[in-house]
Amino acid sequence: MVIPASELRRRIKDDNDRMALDADTAARIENLYGAVDWQRLAEKGFDKHGDYCFIYSYPPVRTLRSIPPDAMFQPSAIEPVTDRLNVYLHIPYCSGICSYCYFAKVVDNNNAPVLKDEYIDLLIGEMDMKLSRYNPAASIGTVHFGGGTPSTLEPRQIRRIMAYLRGLPHTGELEVTFECAPETVHADLNKLRVLRDNGVTRINLGVESLDDRVLKIMARRHGSDMTLRSLENIREAGFNNINVDLIYALPGQSTASWVATMREICRWGLESVSVYRLRRHPMKRISKLEQDLYPSYEDGLRMQLAHGLVMGDGGYLRVQSHKYARRREVIQQQTERKRGVDATQLLSVGCGAYGFLNSTFYWNTKSLGEWAAALRENRHPTWIGQTLTPQELMRKTFALGVHTSSGIPRSAFARKFGADPLEVFTDEIRTAEEAGLFEVTDDAVRPTELGYFFGDELSILFYSPTVRAELDALGMKYGMFFEQDRYA
Questions:
Q1: Where do you find CATH 1.10.10.920 in the chain?
Q2: Omega within 30 of 0 (cis) for the link into 59
Q3: CATH 3.80.30.20 spans which residues of the chain?
Q4: For the domain 74-338, what is the CATH superfamily, name and number?
Q5: Residues 38, 43, 46, 51: is their CA dihedral positive or negative?
Q6: CATH number of the domain at 39-59+388-483, please?
Q7: I want to staple 182 with a disulfide (CB 3.0 to 4.6 A). Which of 124, 230, 284, 451 is the partner?
Q8: For residue 141, which of 372, 415, 391, 346 has the smallest C-alpha distance?
Q9: Per-residue pLDDT of the chain (488 residues; tens, 9 = 90+)
Q10: Residue 124: Cβ within 10 Å count
């Protein structure tokens, strides 16, 4: 007898709904939930309804337009050319396509428009083109390999791109973060050793959940057994800075099953943990599932409160709105810098990569074929973007700065923009402070614990009137999802 997939999903949810959460933890979560004046905060604009997506860039993608391919090389008085860069490299290949993913990716089955060996050649070519136009003498401060799934690369490809990066000027001990998926490293200790031996210093493992059946709904290609073996391998390979990504508010997930995943992760004593609410892109398969499989809006809030509680119990500090660490020294430096006031320049390469040079936010095409064609013709594969005015640069500093460990330093902001942030954003800061989301000191404007909870809503508080008007016309709040997804 074949059981329909919808019935299997229903059984997963029913089982997780029956899963017991210990009384003490349940009571503590309810106490936290009851202590928040949700209605008052909603009236002030701080709620999580709408087209939710983590605010990782500014301006939001739905407001971006076509720009000249080399717009990011135009001089900027406020963001002058720097001698220190953050670098992001996008590797689009994956073992399969997750049901929720809206990033630029392609299945690694030797049928992609561009195979991996040529991709590395083109990636290096794009780096050379951008460095030569921006600042050939610039030193690399941080590197992040994202995707897609960078760990689908073969050892020879890893050695080649890492040898290229090591040959560039860099500052001190280079932070190199490499994203891995469990199905690519659980049985491949050699690949992890190649990463370590060639200069990777930090591994980011995409765990998402330790609930095997929820992982199937997500169309992940691994189970909890692969995840735990992967963690063993990463340690054995010699890595002492490991981060894992987790997702909550998933279909079929309950607060109890979410807490169980977090507690198991805490037992591993990893250096840091990132937690994300599910981003339900309307064009992704996961959004087409039965809507009652998802936790309610209120239970999603409880899950978010739970991660602060459980991670704290596990010995972790909150270091960003969505990140926890054993020690502040292990925070990923790239996320701190690119969202900060200074050292924000991000040279990004690869299909679907976004970057920020001079005062221009740019996004490469998400089409692998288009990206490769541009580079074969020695053209920058720019798709969309925006050159930011001084006013928009100030808004970017706050929209992204609320997701850092220190908030927005007042002296650094004044040094860069010529005014104290309290003078520039008087009303916005007062609104957030009165809501209990900001604390203002002589040194900084930074989120409170509740402010980190509403980090994305604090971000959109600083959207410009022009951006807000564009999103209002689209019926959108966050504006982080593209209109169409033909490239992903």
A1: 39-59+388-483
A2: yes
A3: 74-338
A4: tm_1862 like domain (3.80.30.20)
A5: positive
A6: 1.10.10.920
A7: 230
A8: 346
A9: 677 889 889 999 999 999 999 999 999 999 999 999 999 999 999 999 988 999 999 999 999 999 999 999 999 999 999 999 999 999 999 999 898 888 889 999 988 999 999 999 999 999 999 999 999 999 999 999 999 999 999 999 999 999 999 999 988 889 999 999 999 999 999 999 999 999 999 999 999 999 999 999 999 999 999 999 999 999 999 999 999 999 999 999 999 999 999 999 999 999 999 999 998 888 788 888 889 999 999 999 999 999 999 999 999 999 999 999 999 999 999 999 999 999 999 999 999 999 999 999 999 999 999 999 999 999 999 999 999 999 999 999 999 999 999 999 999 999 999 999 999 999 999 999 999 999 999 999 999 999 999 999 999 999 999 999 999 999 999 999 887 554 44
A10: 17
Between the CA atoms of 138, 129, 174 and 166, what dihedral angle is there, to the nearest 10 degrees?
Answer: -110
Query: Tokens in use for 291?
Result: 């809507």
Torsion of CA 430, 431, 432, 436, to 10 degrees: 90
Retrieve residue 156's tokens.
Answer: 């020879």
